[in-house]
Amino acid sequence: MLFDPRPKDNLKDLFDRESEISLLKNSLDSPLIIIIGLRRTGKTSLIKSVLNYTKSTYIFLDMRRFENKEYIVYKDFIKSLEREINEITRKNKDLLSYLRHIQGVQVMGFSVSFSWGEEKVEISDVFSELNDWASEKGKTMHIVIDEAQELIKLRGYNILPSIAYAYDNLKNLSFIVTGSEVRVRDKFLKLEDENSPLFGRAHVEINLLPFSKETSVRFLEEGFKEQGISFPDSEKIFDILGGNPGWLTYFGYIYIKHGRDEEKAILETKRYAKRLLSREFCNFTKEGGRDKRRYLKVIETCRKGCSWKDIKNSLEALEGREINDGTVSDIINNLLEYSFLVKEDRKYMITDKLLGEIINVRC
């Protein structure tokens, strides 16, 4: 069902992602795959649907659980890994015989417990045993790190050397890393940083874009057709909500579930979307100790596109004083890194139409 708001796990439920599906299918033997896209554009659905379709074995680490934390410690990450490995061992009990030899791992019945204290388990050791098990089975183990930019907040431990070790030595492991921001590639994986353990590593990159107007209209029409509903206002809905598949899906779901009241469905979708966008924006400002007023002013200024000069002028009008050019550029670059802004030709645009409606957000 196209209007089911939960992440999809079946290829037939993905809409207009044929090229991305094909690329991911053909890249599953690659040691590192990076999937970039805004939140709610379907990264999770793409991965799970393809991996389920190909009957792949995978561990899915959802880093969104840490988005409200100012920082993450080793215990947070290792317990997340422990939880997902225990999901795997329920169906693959022979994996326990590989894991029990690792220092810092305790096997209890049909589950494992990872130590995070003085004799903490080393992630590279876990990767090695997962690889050996997968090799024995003649398969590839996929380790998915969803919304991996949250791991930039990991303190006291660097996971990149373990991923680099696996990349170079463990041929039956493959990492699929997703992010809603470009900084997952540049600030987390640091692929172009000469001091990064992953510097220069070849990888496959898939970019999931929001739907175009044409695709959005087809999505709405086909979703309603599934339900036996003729819906004439698809273009209007795109003009109001934009092309984020998550918002369009939620609109269709609310419209059907609550009596086909279009205005009510629009208002409820906007309320839902702005709540999520406001939370993400507040986490962004808190994470860097950033001045919320400045960033909201830029978003307001760029609702219909803006230039660098427009941004500088709006910030100076806000504060009633001259602002250094470097400060203006830093503010713009932060918004670009976190995918609140995108640069198209010489104009800056907000990445989500509804982002422009959170100008009164309170964090």
UniProtKB/TrEMBL annotation:
Q: Which residues form the MCM C-terminal domain?
A: 292-348
Q: What is this protein called?
A: Archaeal ATPase (AAA+ superfamily)
- Alphabetical list of SUPFAM superfamilies matching this protein: P-loop containing nucleoside triphosphate hydrolases, Winged helix' DNA-binding domain
Source superkingdom: Archaea
Which organism is the protein's source? Saccharolobus islandicus (strain REY15A)
Q: Which InterPro entries match?
A: ATPase_dom, P-loop_NTPase, WH-like_DNA-bd_sf, WH_DNA-bd_sf, WHD_MCM_arc
Show where the ATPase domain sits.
14-250
Q: One of this protein's Pfam families, by short name?
A: ATPase_2
A single MF term (Gene Ontology): ATP binding
Q: Which residues cross the membrane?
A: none
